[in-house]
C-alpha cells in the first residue's frame, strides 16, 4: 500500500497538470462590441483590479446626439481565468448613469465572452417621479 501512494500522487499531479494546459485566461482589457452594435474599450486592468475605459452606445432614448462616455470599473481578482467585474458609465449626453455587472467567460473555442446585466438611473425632477427613473 505504501508503494501505491507515490504512484497515485504522481498520476494525480499529471492529470491535474494536463487539465491546466488548455485553460485560457479571460482578459477584460481590449475592444468589445455587443449584439446591438455598442462599442466598449477597456484600458489596462491594474494590479488591484481597477480599470477605466470608454463606451459608445448604439441605442438610446435620449433626443440628444449620442456621444462616447467614460466608464470606471473593477474586476474581482480571486478567479482570473473567468473573472467577475462591474463598471459604471456616466453618460456624456444625458443626465443618467448605468451600472453593469457581469462575468468574462472563455468558451470551448477559446473565445472571450462578456455576460452582463445592467441598471440605468435617470434624473427625476421630483420625488413623485422616482418610480420611472430606474
From TrEMBL:
Keywords: Biotin, Disulfide bond, Glycoprotein, Secreted, Signal. Residues 1-19 form the signal peptide. Pfam families: Avidin. Its main location: secreted. GO terms for cellular component: extracellular region. SUPFAM superfamilies: Avidin/streptavidin. One of its GO terms (molecular function) is biotin binding. Homotetramer. Belongs to the avidin/streptavidin family. Forms a strong non-covalent specific complex with biotin. This is Avidin.
